[in-house]
Design brief:
The structure is a single chain. This protein has seven helices and 13 strands. It is of the alpha+beta class and about 280 residues long. It has two domains: about 190 residues, Restriction Endonuclease, CATH 3.40.91.20; about 60 residues, SH3 type barrels (Roll). The strands form three sheets. Strands 1-6-5-4-3-2 form a six-stranded mixed beta sheet, with helices on both faces. The protein is elongated and about 65 Å long.
Length: about 280
């Protein structure tokens, strides 16, 4: 998987200056980076079939990302999954709400968040609670937080609920919460897949499409390479054009009676025929 990073409170500089932290961070992002499109597709189809057997709805790729990442992290010595923040011996607090997705003692506290955008502030605070001093005894002590979420483009590619939080939105939370987010933290935004996307019917759409006359007069849904915005319309014209000194196909689609759009193959990431 591809991803982008943002360093809060000089987290990246601190990691790079400490060999132990750097090794642990490379272990985590290495596990993320090694998740392949093929692996995600296989797991997604398996989970989709399991949900269908239970007659439950299933739409997003996020359960596959979570399960594959969990499996990889548990193979690395020193890493734990679903880690309690506090050592609640009396049961007065209840650890269900006070839990991290992953942790490595005296190193990183990790939250992987694909839930509603309103939970961003709480998800950001959980690594802080695990790293800062607290009146309640800790189950694990961290130094630096890691927050993993989808970018806006990944939300489209993975058919993730539009109300869920995103990397771009998380970054907007950081300045007003600076006094609350007192620990160094790496914000990681997952980027779209290279070869496929999940459409709104929970179907896999591959990027290896061909533009030819068979598309004429068909209703299509196009995902643009530039910003993953989606255009829906009817194909009205297909022709060759000499663009950017290369031979390339143009496709014109009619969005409505008054508006049509001219696109090239270079501008199209996914093309789905709807009728």
């Amino acid at each position: 998987m591809r991803f982008i990073e943002y360093s809060h409170r000089h987290a990246k500089a601190i990691i790079d200056s400490n060999p132990d932290l750097k090794e642990r961070y490379e272990q985590f992002i290495g596990a993320l980076r090694d998740i392949s499109d093929e692996e995600l597709i296989e797991d997604f189809l398996l989970k989709k079939a399991e949900y269908a057997a239970r007659k439950s709805t299933f739409k997003s790729v996020t359960p596959s990302i979570n399960s594959i990442l969990k499996r990889r992290m548990l193979e690395i010595p020193g890493w734990q999954a679903e880690v309690d923040i506090f050592n609640d011996k009396t049961g007065e607090i209840g650890n269900t709400e006070w839990r991290l997705d992953f942790a490595c003692d005296n190193a990183f506290c990790v939250e992987v968040a694909f839930n509603h955008g309103e939970a961003i502030a709480w998800n950001l605070l959980k690594p802080v609670l695990s790293c800062e001093l607290n009146h309640v005894e800790k189950a694990i002590q961290g130094q630096i937080g890691i927050y993993v979420c989808a970018t806006d483009n990944m939300k489209i590619a993975g058919n993730i609920d539009s109300a869920s939080g995103s990397y771009e939105k998380v970054l907007r939370y950081l300045p007003p919460m600076m006094n609350q987010l007192t620990i160094p933290m790496m914000i990681i935004g997952l980027e779209p897949f290279d070869t496929f996307k999940i459409n709104d019917k929970a179907e896999i759409v591959y990027s290896d499409f061909s533009i030819d006359d068979s598309l004429l007069n068909h209703e299509v849904k196009i995902t643009k390479t530039s910003d993953y915005s989606i255009i829906k319309g009817v194909v009205t014209d297909i022709n060759e054009a000499n663009l950017f000194l290369e031979e390339e196909k143009n496709i014109r689609i009619r969005k409505n009676k008054k508006e049509s759009i001219l696109l090239t193959e270079k501008m199209i990431k996914f093309l789905e025929v709807l009728s």
